[in-house]
């Protein structure tokens, strides 16, 4: 009988090899969590966010934008590699001319996660907290934007360094917002 204790933990290198074989997923403490394509609406939202951010980040040479599948190596032994839907990392952390084969090993300054219609508000908060807990440099503030693919709104979560509370703000497509 095979139990959890018999399960071989995977490494980030194993995940890269699996990706080359068409397996898509994240690694959480050595355990593979396979993911599936999220659909057209999800992709459209991600592209729109990348375009908006790119129009600001690119001309100012502020840093690097990446999309899902690029992966961020958050923990070693056992390894954790997560895939934000969109991420921005400042040029201070990753120089603009850096060519990274594999996974970046720094936590992005901005992470965008796009919630599917089946994802709960708790999922959004847990996902945001995971990224915040991964910070090692304690930047002045980190914003995690959870964009909903089922509504015309998005949830932005911010955590200033001096606080341990997540502050949520709902944004409509019209640009109006209210504190949640």
Description:
The chain contains three helices and eleven strands. The protein has 180 residues and is of the alpha+beta class. The protein has one domain: tt1808, chain A. The chain is 24% helix and 31% strand. The radius of gyration is 17 Å and the shape is globular. Mean pLDDT is 76; it is low at 157-180.
List the quaternary state of the chains. single chain
SSE string, helices as H and strands as E? HEEHEEEEEHEEEE
Indicate the radius of gyration in whole angstroms. Answer: 17 Å
What is the number of strand segments? 11
Write down the CATH topology.
Answer: tt1808, chain A
If you average the pLDDT, what whole number results?
Answer: 76
Largest sheet features? 7 strands, mixed
Number of domains: 1
Give the neighbour order of strands across the main sheet.
3-6-7-8-9-10-11
What is the CATH H-level superfamily? Answer: tt1808, chain A
Give the number of helices: 3
Under the CATH scheme, the architecture is Alpha-Beta Complex
Output the structural class: alpha+beta
Low-pLDDT parts are: 157-180
Helical content band: 10-25%
Strand content: 25-35%
Form type: globular
Distance between the termini: 48 Å
> What is the CATH class name?
Alpha Beta
């Amino acid at each position: 009988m095979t139990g959890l204790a018999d399960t071989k933990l995977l490494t980030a290198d194993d995940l890269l090899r699996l990706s080359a074989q068409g397996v898509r997923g994240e690694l959480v403490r050595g355990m593979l969590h396979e993911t599936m394509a999220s659909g057209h609406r999800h992709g459209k939202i991600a592209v729109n966010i990348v375009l908006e951010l790119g129009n600001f980040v690119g001309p100012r040479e502020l840093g690097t934008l990446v999309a899902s599948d690029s992966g961020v190596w958050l923990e070693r032994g056992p390894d954790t590699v997560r895939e934000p839907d969109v991420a921005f990392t400042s040029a201070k952390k990753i120089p603009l001319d850096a060519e990274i084969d594999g996974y970046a090993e720094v936590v992005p300054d901005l992470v965008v996660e796009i919630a599917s219609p089946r994802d709960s508000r708790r999922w959004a908060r847990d996902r945001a907290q995971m990224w915040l807990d991964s910070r090692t440099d304690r930047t002045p503030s980190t914003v995690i934007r959870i964009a909903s693919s089922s509504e015309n709104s998005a949830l932005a979560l911010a955590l200033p360094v001096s606080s341990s509370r997540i502050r949520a703000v709902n944004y409509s497509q019209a640009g109006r917002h209210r504190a949640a």
